[in-house]
Amino acid sequence: MFDFFSFLRKHGEITLLILLILISSISIGINTDGGLMTPKEAGFTVISTLQRGVNGIGSFFSNTVNSINELSELRDAYRQLQEKVSEYQEIERNIEELTNENKALREQLGFSRTSPYRNIPAEVIGKDPGNTFNSIVINKGKNEGIERGMPVVALQDGYHGLVGKIAEVGMFTSIVLPIYDESAYVSARLQESRYEGLITGSGYSDSILTMDYIKKIAREYIKYGDFVITSGMNSIFPKGIYVGRVTAIEGKEWDTSLQLEIEPIVEFTTLEYVFVLQRSGE
């Protein structure tokens, strides 16, 4: 069945043009005074009517093309804005990284100047959990006066925490044996109660240290969170360097000593800068 309205929706412009022609044809022979038009006047009327229809269609297509061009320009502008936003975000990230690095360097410089120990600032450039021992590589070596056995510390949360000691020295780099290595030993004492013991590592940078050989009578004087510092009882580590805090206290009835679990002051997984301490007289 023929659907007039559907046809009109699909062919509206052509239908409009035909209607204009019909209306013009009907009015061809009639002028404004009610008299008949001459053939010339009638022809002019038909042609001008057709021109108006064609101009209307032309304007429609022209406006449509202009709208498409404007949409394309808007998309290009939006894409350029997105690129600018990405550039600004990258710049912001770089500024934040530089700000954090500048803050860290200022803290390191302040520690280096005020430390009671002569020290050589260095940057961590590598970490290697090797087969023989764990190692931390720094960017200073013999040409900077680094020697084997020198203690290494780091500034963390306002404390100078023990990192380890120099194990190997090259001309421009050195390898640090960290205190969490299984072969590392540190003579230490509880800062408040002054009881002494021996700290050993487990071999993992994110694990707890163990402090053994504390007298059992010290149990009532030890609290969770107590600081543990180097005792200076050997010739490697100076006295009073922070090692960590007490996180657990263990002691069997038949044992004559306590065992403590110590959380290191230094966060080894995020370590970036260290200080190599020079021995007295060097």
From TrEMBL:
One of its GO terms (cellular component) is plasma membrane. Residues 124-278 form the Rod shape-determining protein MreC beta-barrel core domain. The keyword ATP-binding does not apply. One of its GO terms (biological process) is regulation of cell shape. Residues 64-115 form a coiled coil. The keyword Coiled coil applies. Keywords: Cell shape, Coiled coil. It holds the Pfam family MreC. Involved in formation and maintenance of cell shape. This is Cell shape-determining protein MreC.
